[in-house]
Amino acid sequence: MSDSRVPFSEIYLATEPYVKSMGQVRIGASGIGWKAAEGESEALQGVNIPGLSMPAGMLALQREDLRRLQWQRVARGYGLRIYTKSGAMHKLDGFTADDYEVLRDAVKRFFSGLTLEVRDISLKGWNWGKTEFEGSDMSFRVENRPMFDLPMAYVSNTNLANKNEVSVEFQPPRGAAASGKGTKRKGAPDELVEVRFYVPGTIATGSSIPAKTGAKDGEEEAMSVDGDENGDEDDE
């Protein structure tokens, strides 16, 4: 290990969701750099990633532009999310659990004022929660922990499917990757093309809701939400 730079091998540049290109990461006093391995830069042709220079396939992020660094569990092991002051967000995937301490120490050593945050992912499997925006991504959160992110740059259409349901359609942009441009790619893996969110309405806490309470012949009794027939009419 060099005294001036800390390297990590076999790391994927995952900033672009439809690109899979592996290379090496180096962290030093000047910033964070990623360089595609031999033959891997072809997948980056035509991709517009801030800071990526072609045809060498090099991504250079200067120290003064780094705003926030996050470590999280991803499909390819562990990943590093890099937020920049210019508004871009980059993803580097393929780290191992053992890389965390090395990466944390490198950040502490080279980047004064920055820390490697741990982004805990919700694994509860619930399908209800809250949404919020983080840069250009929409994050679905359960108990204040992110469960998944949706890249808004790939939203092709949104639609109010009905009174309480919003559909979001996804489509890779034209020229998303040289290896399989466009939306119809023979042999391509399955991809998410639509997600729907149910948005519940409001109900008065003291309103009466028809409910089966054992009445004969299907008769219904008025039942208060809070158990009080004369409850307050506050929205909930």
Automatic annotation (TrEMBL):
Protein known as: FACT complex subunit
